[in-house]
Amino acid sequence: MMDYETVIIGGGPVGLMLASELALAGVKTCVLERLEQPMPYSKALTLHPRTLELFEMRGVLERFASRGKKTSSGHFSMLDTRLDFSSLDTSCPYTLLLPQTETEQLLEERARSLGAEVLRGAEALTVTQNEEGVQTIFKDREGSVRTLSSLFAVGADGAGSVVRKQAGIAFPGTDSTVTAALGDVKLLSPPPSGVLSLCTKEGGVMIVPLSPDRYRVVLISPYRTQTPKDAPVTEEELKTDLIRMCGTDFGLNEPTWMSRFGNASRQAKQYRSGRLFLAGDAAHIHFPAGGQGLNVGLQDAMNLGWKLAATVGGSAPSWLLDSYHAERHRVAEGLLRNTEAQTRLMDFTKAGLHLRSMVSDMLAFPDVNRFVAGQISAIDVGYEADQNMPPHRLNGKRLPDVELRLPDGSMERLYNCLHNGAYVLLSLKQGADNDHIPFNGLHTVCASLAEPREEWRDVHTVLVRPDGHAAWAVDAAGPDAAEVIQSGIRRWLPIASRV
Ligand SMILES: Cc1cc2nc3c(=O)[nH]c(=O)nc-3n(C[C@H](O)[C@H](O)[C@H](O)COP(=O)(O)OP(=O)(O)OC[C@H]3O[C@@H](n4cnc5c(N)ncnc54)[C@H](O)[C@@H]3O)c2cc1C
Q: pLDDT at position 478, please?
């Protein structure tokens, strides 16, 4: 008898998100977090549109949105032309400014309320596996060494991941070549709009409001890019650099947190080794440009949660768990590419500034802007189509929160149907030809689209995954739609049977 079905090492945002997903599905879950108390400061400040969509899918978006500040633009490498999220095809066309501490607090509340245990002051020492399960040895808050057994364990334990090392998973990539500094400070004379993004031959500066009188100041000084990451940042350094770049230090004082960060860029070779998995910073690190790391980590957790839950619950096909690596490794390859490109663009030489100006001009073209905004917001995320299903343009795609008209005339949104984290069989074929429903253990929604959408034209049925992607779709015009639907359900949900 195992102590838990899943143990998550690391109670940062990614571990807590995963714990919520597993607990929602009824998986007995324990999170081990070495910190006694949550961090008082926030690395990340932004939640991007795809993450907000995931929250909407679980019916918790409002909890986050009510505590943050919506803004419809983002940045790519601090270029002058902002990314316009308002033009994206999403019900969340904005970024939410919300400090990471608050995101973590809300995620921890949710994980606990759904039944996950979160042990604080618990540091994992070793994680080993055999055919039956995983043994995690950890030191508890009293200093006693204890062991937990589980069917699976997930390393959401950040860049220095013990789980990754214990699993022998390589973490190839490049060391830091550039460092930047930040300070969370008071500004007596802040910039007029409260926000500043400026790049000159003296370097780059970004100022973002944290509260009515506190600000995050980020400085990329060409004179300090070789400063080691662990060299302390001083108030004097922040002031000197601000004066050099902006002609004023904005009355900077009372720093509460000052830190240096670098552009080390690495990705775990495998996200799975047997019963062990990696998610978030344990799986990928990069320069925090464009505010993506936490977001992509939460999206990893969303991808892994329902697959792990289905496996624990015995309803998953044998191939499902491996699709976690296949789908999410490719996404983080793109993340590393775009953050490396952004870092390269942070070149404050004369030629570098010309290049920045050209790329910034290109971002003014709406299609280019939408393309880059799609990457940074992760709205462009799509997975490979299931090769074992007949091709369809929606297969593997992220589905937007389309509005549905139900048979009784009432309206419903697709994401509302996903609140309980289960698959949805969406039948858009009206009339008598829907004899493939219902299936045991599969929530079926019969509806039509309230607004026509080109890529959904003629769609008969879509199997919507718990993370809002299309497992597969079939057109009304296609031959043997009923046969494809039944084989698709057998492939993805082997235990669902016709009523
Ligand atoms: C300056 C800066 C700004 C950033 N801004 C953004 C942004 O705006 N948007 C964005 O999306 N991302 C941003 N990021 C990145 C983001 O902060 C990280 O990607 C995110 O914290 C990763 O979450 P995680 O849960 O994977 O790892 P972590 O946040 O590192 O959490 C890992 C947790 O595991 C615990 N742990 C580690 N080892 C053990 C162990 N052996 N036993 C038990 N517990 C353990 C740690 O205490 C920690 O709580 C920024 C990063 C930096 C440095």
A: 72
